[in-house]
Amino acid sequence: MVVVMHPQATEAQKEHVRETIRALGCTPRDVQGEEVTIICLIGNTRGLQPEQLEIIPGVDRVQRIQRPFKLVSREVQPSDSIIQVDGVEIGGHEVVVFAGPCSVESKKQLMETAHAVQKAGAKILRGGAFKPRTSPYSFQGLGIEGLKIMAEVKKETGLPVITEVMSPEMVPVVAEYADILQIGARNMQNYPLLMVVGKSHRPVMLKRGLSATIEEMLLAAEYVLAGGNHQVILCERGIRTFETWTRNTLDISAVPVLKRYSHLPVFIDPSQATGHAEYVSAVSCAAVAAGADGLIIEVHPNPEKALSDGEQSIRPEVFAELMPQLRAVAQAIGRTA
Ligand code: PEP
Ligand code: MN
Fold it and tell me: How is domain 83-332 classified at the architecture level of CATH?
């Protein structure tokens, strides 16, 4: 249920609504639109009567939300959410590309990659310091050392950085170094983690779980927004199907579906989706054509030597060739890249 205030409603009237919501056993959460404020009721609204709120001065109407998600929904916020990261606008007119290695391996490797992807037009540097590997014997990432390397590379290049956080207790330290917190596919339904990043001031990229439906993904995002953090980017990275010739199956239709039901920016990860460097460029172009707000792409200066995901990492030269193609596709649909 949401309370839509009159455009002229005063702050005192809004506070009256919030107090009434609290008295009804729910938590009020404001969504500030261009003209009106919407106050959402977080909690169990079953049994509540809209009239209990409709009579309060300053209230325009009370609406029941049809879907199980509220704060992420376009019903609550019709306009696209735009997230600002160090001057980079995510979810706006420009398609934004994040690029970098799967894992941070050394300062030299990250610096070399960062300079190359920045020159080609990437706006955010990706790199894993804590890696969720399928096998416990695979490279697990450099940990804190990797975060420090990211900070050094950011200092030299000015590129903001995104990195994965795997557990609730690591959120404060990762948030100290990272500009965007990545929640990996394997953790999409790690609710304690979602609740903690919901309290963080850092934007969050939420990857779709390997076998999660779109609705489950939106409900996972709802946890983060319900915690108070409205800066969430959704990322489709392929789902598990019967197909084995690609690592996962990219659900390209998730882009228009997510954009229809949610105001949050939608990204595609063509690297985890395909698992093969050879297919990354074609799938990246398709993602932009389908209306994705951005891409997160794995780039490695020497993929054969990569400590993780070398098969799906493209070389800096390939990335440099891809960027003008993405700009052309973006232009064809009335956007920039
Ligand atoms: C990654 O980005 O390297 C990664 C592990 O992604 P995902 O969580 O989508 O598998
Ligand atoms: Mn990877």
Answer: Alpha-Beta Barrel (3.20)
The closest-lying atom of ligand 1 relative to the alpha carbon of residue 185 is 8
pLDDT digits (tens, 9 = 90+) for 164-218: 999 999 999 999 999 999 999 999 999 999 999 999 999 999 999 999 999 999 9
In the sheet that holds 2-5, the strands lie side by side as: 27-32, 37-42, 2-5, 59-63
Residues 228-275 pLDDT 10s: 999 999 999 999 999 999 999 999 999 999 999 999 999 999 999 999
308 in contact with ligand 1, CB cutoff 6 A: no
Tokens 């074609």 belong to which residue?
282
**Counting ligands in written order, which one lies closest to the CA of residue 238?**
1
Confidence at residue 35, expressed as pLDDT on a 0 to 100 scale: 84
Helix (H) or strand (E) holding 113: helix 107-120
Cα–Cα distance between 306 and 214 in angstroms, integer? 32
Contacts of 190 (CB under 8 A, 6+ apart): 183
**What are the start and end residues of each CATH 3.30.70.1140 domain in the chain?**
2-63
How far is 275 from 139, CA to CA, in rounded Å?
A: 18
- Supply the DSSP string of 44-65, one letter for each residue: --TT--THHHHTSTTEEEEE--
Which protein residues have their CB within 5 A of the ion that is ligand 2? 102, 309
Classify 2-63 by CATH class: alpha beta
Does residue 263's CB lie within 6 angstroms of at least one atom of ligand 1?
A: no
CA torsion through residues 134, 135, 136, 137, sign: negative
- Closest ligand, as measured to the CA of 312: 2
Q: Quick one: the chain helix, strand, coil %, rounded to 5?
A: 40, 20, 40
Give the ligand 1 atom nearest the CA of 131: 5
